[in-house]
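Hi R.,

As promised, here are both runs. First protein below:
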Amino acid sequence: MMDYQALGELIRNSDNIVFFGGAGTSTESGIPDFRSADGLYNADTGVNVPPEEILSRDFFFAHTEDFYKFYKEHLIHPHAKPHPGHEALVHLERQGKLKAIITQNIDGLHQMAGSTNVLELHGSVHRNYCLDCRRFHSLDEVMASEGLVPRCECGGMVKPDVVLYQEGLDMQLLDRAVNYIREADVLIVAGTSLTVQPAASLVRYYLGGRFFLINKSSTPYDSFADYVITDSFAKVMPILAGVSD
């Protein structure tokens, strides 16, 4: 059995930790992942179109009502709360050890837990903007809109600030993520299959010798990691951070 306390010492002795997480870090908050049996990609869309197509830029503009119906039903989780794994990262950040959280998630749970330097590679459901006047709209405004498709005061259509299929990542944000990882002493990766590019390849920029990979299933980068932990992120991360036995 892996000695989590000993591994935690390696992490807690560092003052330059970077965390990189995916959908698996939110499942224990009640948010489905993408590829599991109960995941988003197996959800019933109701329109005989796969979820990947619904969550594309072309579909958003061609079938906006169908997009928003699926989006509001399956990507918005208003009752989800941070779990002990999120809180452990806040603990490390407040100690000055964790320098950045890089996430593929759009749920905002890291910020809800109290983390401050969060790089959201795929955007956030909490940010929405008018396609005409660029005015910001909160998630509450989007959910309270009279029709399925939220409209701005100017009459323009509101789009979630999330990266859809056929859209590119923010290159400045990606460059920041690369720099954090390249300079990190410890890299902790959790809850991601490491198959979605270009985000997955970010781990290759890590130059150190303390790469922790926490995931319940194997990934293409298991052999690249120094420590592979096949366990629950919400259970393991507090132990590694020294806030739980």
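And here is the second one, sequence first, then its structure tokens:
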Amino acid sequence: MNIEFIRSLLPEEVIVYLMIFFGALLIFEGFRQVISGSANEIQHKNRRMRMIADGVGEKKITEALIRNNAFGNTRNKGPVAEFQRALAHANVPFGFGAVMLILTALAVVIFIFSSRWLPLPFAALATLVLSYLLPYAILNRLAEARLDKLTEQLPDALDLMARGLRVGHPLNVTLRRVARDMPDPIGSEFGIIEDRIRHGIDLPTAFREFADRIDREDVHYLSVCVGIQHGSGGNLGRVLLVLSRVIRDRRLMKKKIHAISSEGRLSGLILTMMPFLIIGVVHTSTPSFFGDVMDHPIFMPVVIVIMVMIVLQGFILKLLTDFDF
């Protein structure tokens, strides 16, 4: 490579050469997508359609999509049941046993390393937080994000079904359109409903299983509406349109409440984090302020009590600013 030639280039010439390079790269990528067919929207709409396009068997598709939902019974209580439900709602591609094995191995590694620099009680606490509590918090957040996205997509799916029913399409065709044309997570979930109905499960049972998997109020409303309409008859397309409008109005009201309460949530976050910030600033600027009394026997009990009170304060403030609608 001619280094002197590169050094002699003006900035404008460098920009021109870079634009030519990226333009050629975009043209190559466009040809690659056309030739390979990877731009096919139907194949890439959701995970179920991609698995079908790859030739995966129907049984394996169902097992992959509802791998952890056998544990999603809302009647079970306790931390283990909550963790299992979070796995099911987040649609993690691993089973409960595999996830626990991974977290246990992570806990052993963290404890081995943390015990070299920390006392055993603090090393055990750090291991518990980093290997179990933190992954659970992340998993729970992923599950909530997936369920929120599904609830946001639900009115569009109901509108798509209602339009199909109004022009005379049978129900299984409208379900197939949603499963084919809508992205995850709603596309794959409606694909499961379609598969269950095709295998002989009646319509109310399939939607009731869907509601049990998702466990959201809007989805339970859908299950109840479908069950009532199936038993008493009527215009299902009209019912779906009304339910779609109700779900949209509920989401709009929830967003308004969330915006109004944002000041209270921010104040609660500041009040919770302020003691830690003050302690950090004081300890950094004047290490002897805490260092001179750290060996006193009452120091650690007082610190523990203060930490518990701070955490309790944050929890109470969160409850005061968390409106369930």
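A quick note on the second one: The mean pLDDT is 82. Let me know what you think.

Best,
J.
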